[in-house]
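> example.struct
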């Protein structure tokens, strides 16, 4: 049996971890390029630059767009060369980190990623999802290396909107179910081989942590309190889900996400919100037993993950569902499922997920 496992060189998570960044960077180089979207640059760029000066580090900045496009990747790589930098720091949400990761891959330079939200499990991986200007997925680009380090400041994460935290749980919800499907089908993972016991167990720990700490982490967020439950939840959504999906495999839930990403009707939704609903639909494809299905829907309801088309803000017209199903089955990872899935199967699973979601919401 051939297995392969990928992970970042270092993973650092604590309240105030942003303070650790200058000392960490000094171990990789002396001339830093900080890449971030406008919001993250305004919130944290000055803090990072000033703290790095104490260690005689030079920090240049480059503002990137909200989508991970090849145009921005090329612009960022050219800026890095122009300034003569030796370390790339990507800061922000998943798409900003994907841009920095893809540019660093072209440069083959040191890469440090600093997520400012926990809306998805992208930070730890060696995967950049490339989009067009409208947000549709064009390419899943596997980079040569994982980040040298991922720095997660939970004091920063807790100040992001609750919707982003919940979206991260939706992305992580798929991890164990998809890794299990890939193990059953024998699909090759993004790490380049079959799903290992290491990845499968981490994926299961991710799922168990979501159920155990998710609801209390939502409460902690509401109180602005970075406590142990909040820390454990972030560990699950960023690290466990990140290494779990990369080395465990992705399947039906992310295929459905890719289908929706090609539709303007879903442009207002976060990746994790669609993946969460895609997970519910994937469970419909697998004819999941009632006990497990109840566990999943109860969790989704308790933390506030959208589980109906109405909550998603999408009108389930036949034409839309057929478009989603076509992309999911022909241009994505649906082939990693342990059985053949047709476009008709996907449409039916989406409609069944909506019915199950409505039923759960109506329960007292």
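> example.seq
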């Amino acid at each position: 049996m051939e297995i392969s496992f990928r992970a970042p060189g270092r993973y650092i998570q604590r309240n105030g971890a942003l303070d650790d960044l200058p000392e960490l960077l000094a171990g990789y180089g002396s001339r830093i390029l900080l890449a971030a979207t406008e919001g993250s640059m305004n919130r944290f760029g000055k803090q990072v630059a000033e703290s790095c000066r104490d260690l005689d580090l030079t920090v240049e900045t480059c503002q990137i767009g909200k989508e991970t496009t090849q145009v921005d990747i090329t612009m960022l790589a050219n800026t890095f060369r122009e300034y003569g930098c030796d370390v790339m720091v990507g800061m922000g949400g998943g798409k900003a980190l994907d841009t920095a990761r893809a540019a660093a891959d072209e440069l083959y330079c040191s890469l440090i990623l600093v997520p400012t939200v926990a809306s998805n499990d992208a930070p730890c991986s060696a995967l950049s999802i490339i989009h067009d200007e409208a947000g549709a997925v064009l390419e899943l680009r596997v980079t040569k290396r994982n980040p040298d380090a991922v720095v997660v400041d939970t004091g920063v994460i807790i100040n992001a909107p609750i919707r982003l935290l919940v979206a991260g749980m939706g992305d992580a919800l798929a991890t164990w179910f998809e890794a299990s499907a890939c193990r059953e089908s024998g699909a090759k993972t993004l790490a380049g081989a079959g799903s290992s016991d290491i990845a499968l167990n981490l994926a299961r720990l991710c799922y168990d942590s979501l159920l155990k700490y998710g609801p209390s982490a939502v409460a902690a967020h509401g109180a602005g309190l970075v406590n142990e439950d909040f820390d454990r939840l972030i560990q699950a959504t960023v690290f466990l889900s990140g290494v779990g999906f990369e080395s465990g495999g992705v399947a039906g839930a992310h295929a459905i996400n890719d289908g929706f990403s090609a539709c303007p009707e879903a442009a207002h939704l976060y990746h994790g919100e669609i993946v969460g609903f895609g997970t519910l639909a994937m469970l419909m494809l697998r004819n999941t037993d009632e006990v497990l299905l109840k566990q999943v829907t109860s969790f989704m309801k308790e933390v506030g993950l959208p589980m109906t088309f109405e909550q998603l803000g999408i009108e389930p017209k036949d034409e839309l569902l057929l478009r989603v199903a076509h992309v999911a089955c022909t241009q994505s990872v649906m082939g990693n499922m342990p059985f053949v899935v047709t476009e008709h199967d996907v449409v039916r699973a989406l409609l069944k997920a909506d019915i199950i979601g409505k039923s759960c919401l109506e329960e007292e």
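> remarks
The first strand starts at residue 11 and ends at 14.
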